[in-house]
Write a structure and sequence with these properties.
This protein is of the alpha/beta class. 34% of the residues lie in helices and 24% in strands. The model has no long low-confidence stretch (mean pLDDT 90).
Length: 419
Amino acid sequence: MKRVVVLGGSFGGAFTALGIARRLRPGEAQVTLVARENYLFTPFCTEIIGGAMEVRHATAPLRDMLAGRVRFLEAEIGRIDTAARRVETDAGPVDYDVLVVALGRVTGTHGVPGVAEHAYFVRSLADAIAFRNRIIDCLEQGSRMPKSPERSARLTFVIAGAGPTGVELACDMKDFVNEIVREQYPDIAPLEVNVKLFEGGNRVLPSMDPRLSWFAERRMKEKGVDVKLDTRIRGFSGHRIELADGSVQFADTVAWAAGLAANPVVAALDVPKDAAGRIRVDDFLRVEKNDAIFALGDCAGFVQDDSALPPEGQVAMQQAGVAARNVVAAVRGGLLHPFRFRRRGRLVSLGRRYAVCEFFGLRFWGFPAWWLWRTAYLFRLPGIRNRIRVMLDWTLDLFFRRETIRIRYAPERVPEKAD
């Protein structure tokens, strides 16, 4: 029986594994999904940070999704030995006949001093929880500090990068802070809390239509977000931000959403890669010069119309269906099917009841775009249970104040060895 191994528990990896298992005949192959976490994290980091969604509702248990179809292994992936067709993990080696790499990418710091040590990232569930706790910590501390530059720095939040993640984070943060400071922190004047968005380019949302970028910038400024374009961070000490033009800003909190870098496992993999460190794949999502490996999602450099596809969820979702089909064909020795990405649109939330949208050639903004954004993301959630929970969260958010509970997680205990 052939051994098919899928690496990565994100949308690309999970739905590829599920698609492969659904297409295989009983006893034809064993499908194993290897991931660091035992849940699928949906793209709601900013909603969690802004208090619009309960943490567990943004996840789906992988074992529940894959039960009866795919073997799941929760493990940290160390390296991929292509010669031996083996994946080394902290739970032991996993051998494969066909491998699918869907490990995504990690946050890239571009070598800016201090960012890796002091900034907050916003790509995982743990990141979202940590940053939300940080915001509440700063408000609690700032409320008991006397008026001073130190208090001002404590109540200043800087977001680096004005792509979709940075823009959504700035808007959700500002909504959250504006609401809770006014009602729950009488010792802090609302104008004391500053949310600043730094972007190295000349407009926000550079991948979208310029008119939508202009609307998004205007909307953020109306909310009170301080948008600074053509502004690059050169260093961050944890309190002091040095900018490329030589000026200095003081802030105790920086959220870094200014780029991506290759996953370390992918970076160490001995296969052809492009200039950005993504795995080079052919039209069938098969790794160049290695017919036993397929790659998809953010870690794959799929070129269409002379340019690499962007790191977006809809790219990974579309690739997952074709990758599953081609893996099954590879197991059976059949014909592979080429992949062609078809863009359905781009959606970026601008906080409560506002969004910008490109949808099948149409461009619009405001409440209709926000409604479409929520509808589209709702139907990307796996399982009716998660959809109902998220719908309830969003409905309650329309009528009730957001809560400021800060959950401090104790370090995990390591089981003691028996004598």
